[in-house]
C-alpha cells in the first residue's frame, strides 16, 4: 500500500477552481486536477457545483433517432455507421407526426428537453425543410428542442435557430491527437467549424465526447481542454461512456475504470462551472453507485427514456427509483416562457406517472393474490 500522502488543504489550485470561468487552462493544469486525491477532487467539484446550481436538481432530456443507420461517416464507436455491420438497417427520416407523438410521450414521462438525432454527414436541403417543421411542432408542446444532424453550415444553422431550435449537439468526441484513430471521414477542424456556426446563429451548444475508447488519460484531459477553449463554454457537456456495440471496431476495447470516468466528470465540472455536465450514454452498463458518484462529482443532466438513439438506457421506472433513493429531482426549465406553468405541468406529469405505476403495481399484486388463492 502506498505511503499516506500529506493531508490535503486549500491551496491556490482550490481557490483558482472555485468559481472562475476560464478558457486558457493548460494541459498540465488539467492533468493536475485529474491527479488530485479522489476525495479532494470530488469535494472541490461539489463546492463548485453548489456555487452555480441547485444541488439536487438534474436536467432530463429524451432522445429520439429521427433517421437511423447507413451513415457515410466511419466513427469507430458508432452502431449507425454504414462502414460496419451492426445489424441496423437503413431507415427513412421519420414522419413529423410520429416525432410529435414521441415528443408528447417524453413530456408526459417528465422530460423537459427533446433531442432528435439523425445519422447524416450533414442534412440535405429537402430533409432540412422537414426537420425545421419538427422543431416548430415539438416547441409548440412546450419542450426545449435539441438536434444533432452532423455538420451544419452558417445558412443551415441560421435556419434551425430561426425555427426555434434551442440546442445543437455536435461532439468533439476525443482529443485532437487520438481523433484520427477513431474517425477518418470528418476532421476535428470540421467539428469546430460546425460548433462555430451553431454559436454564431445564436443557438446553445451541446458538445462533449466519449470516454473508454482506448484513449490515454492525457487524451481525456486534452478533450476537456478543447471544450474549455470554446467561448462561451458549451451550455451542455455530454460525457458519454462508450457503449460497446457488436460489429463496431471498438466492440472489444478494454473497459474504462469507472473511477476514471467519475474523475473526468469532476474535472469537467471544475473547468466549466456554469455548464450542465451530462452523465450521458453508458448508464445502462453502470451500477447505481457509479451514477451516484457521478452526480456527486457534478453531473446534473441525463438522458431519460428506455432508449438512447439505437442502444438501451435505464428504464424510466428504474431512474425514478434512483432519483428517489438519492433525493434528486428534475430541474425546472430555465428558458421557459411560462416557468411556473411548465413546472406545474412537469410535476403533474411525474405525479400522474407515479400514480399509474402504483396502480399497475397494485393490479399485479392483486393478480398474484388471486393466483395464490386459486392455488391454495
Ligand atoms: N450523426 C451526428 C453526429 O455524429 O454528429 C449525430 C448523431 S451521433 C450518434 C451523436 C453522438 O453520439 C456522437 O458524436 C457520439 O459522441 C455519441 N455516440 C455514438 N455512438 C456511441 C456509443 N456507442 N457510445 C457512446 N456514445 C456514442
Ligand atoms: C450524445 O453525446 N450522446 C447521445 C446524444 N449526444 C445524441 C447519443 C448516444 C448514442 C449512443 C449510441 C446509440 O444509442 O446509438
Ligand atoms: Fe454517423 Fe454520427 Fe454515427 Fe458518426 S456518430 S457514424 S456521424 S451517426
Automatic annotation (TrEMBL):
GO molecular function term, any single one: biotin synthase activity
Keywords for the protein's UniProt record, in alphabetical order: 2Fe-2S, 4Fe-4S, Biotin biosynthesis, Iron, Iron-sulfur, Metal-binding, S-adenosyl-L-methionine, Transferase
Name of the gene: bioB
Biological source species: Halomonas saccharevitans
Domain Radical SAM core: 56-283
Matches recorded under PANTHER family: BIOTIN SYNTHASE, BIOTIN SYNTHASE, MITOCHONDRIAL
Gene3D superfamilies: Aldolase class I (3.20.20.70)
Catalytic reaction(s) noted: (4R,5S)-dethiobiotin + (sulfur carrier)-SH + 2 reduced [2Fe-2S]-[ferredoxin] + 2 S-adenosyl-L-methionine = (sulfur carrier)-H + biotin + 2 5'-deoxyadenosine + 2 L-methionine + 2 oxidized [2Fe-2S]-[ferredoxin]
Name the record gives this protein: Biotin synthase
The organism's place on the tree of life at top rank: Bacteria
S-adenosyl-L-methionine listed as a keyword: yes
Family that this chain belongs to: Belongs to the radical SAM superfamily. Biotin synthase family.
GO terms, biological process: biotin biosynthetic process
Quaternary context: Homodimer.
Required cofactor(s): [2Fe-2S] cluster; [4Fe-4S] cluster
Major enzyme class: transferase
